[in-house]
């Protein structure tokens, strides 16, 4: 019995440097070639048509799989006036929005902001936030750093064959490392 524990311990010690080395190799063997994503197109998934919190269209411009999880960039075409996200937290990602078209209302912690075309907002990780589309139509660039699981969240929401309940939405958020902590932001 002691011999088995000794051998298991020895194997663990022997593989630890290999695991660490493989992480270094992965970082330095990253793709060294750029790529172009055309206007109006999404990388990998094409147009992702969301269900649930809103019915917007999302295009992945830079996937987390392109950057080893370091960064993700999305373009969202907003078609859901008066709708947005529930108040939620990303535990490990900062989020930046750049408004390309339209008007939005954001809440970050206790602060509320009105954003219009050309405005940007930074949402720090571990701070509750939400947004709602004010204008009839809109478009935003959304940047996540690191990428986290937001891309998977969008793909999951789009794959639903029904309008999800609040409980189902909360579970999908949780499955993708986000926590719903309050209702959607209302337009005043």
Describe this structure in words.
- This protein is of the alpha+beta class and 188 residues long.
- It folds into 2 domains: 1-30; 47-184, Jelly Rolls.
- The chain has helices at 2-28, 150-159, 166-175, and strands spanning 47-49, 57-62, 72-78, 86-90, 94-101, 103-108, 111-116, 120-123, 129-133, 138-145, 178-184.
- The chain has a 6-stranded antiparallel β-sheet. Strands 7-6-9 form a 3-stranded antiparallel β-sheet, with no helix packed on it. A two-stranded antiparallel ribbon has the order 4-11.
- A hairpin with a 7-residue loop joins β1 (47-49) and β2.
- The radius of gyration is 20 Å and the shape is globular.
- This is Cupin domain-containing protein.
- It holds the Pfam family Cupin_2.
- InterPro entries: Cupin_2 (IPR013096), QDO-like (IPR053146), RmlC-like_jellyroll (IPR014710), RmlC_Cupin_sf (IPR011051).
- Residues 80-143 form the Cupin type-2 domain.
- It comes from Algoriphagus aquimarinus.
Summarize the structure.
Residues 80-143 form the Cupin type-2 domain. This protein has 188 residues and is an alpha+beta fold.
Query: Helix/strand/pairing class, anyone?
Result: alpha+beta
Determine the mean pLDDT.
Answer: 87
- What's the story with the biggest beta sheet? 6 strands, antiparallel
Number of domains: 2
Structure summary, number of beta strands: 11
Are there runs of 5+ residues with pLDDT below 50, and where? Answer: none
> What's the N-to-C terminus distance?
69 Å
**Count of helical segments?**
3
User: Could you name the CATH homologous superfamily of the largest domain?
Assistant: Jelly Rolls
Beta-strand content: 25-35%
> Which H/E pattern describes the elements?
HEEEEEEEEEEHHE
**Any idea what the radius of gyration is?**
20 Å
Q: Which strand order does the major sheet show?
A: 1-2-3-10-5-8
Q: Output the CATH topology of the largest domain.
A: Jelly Rolls
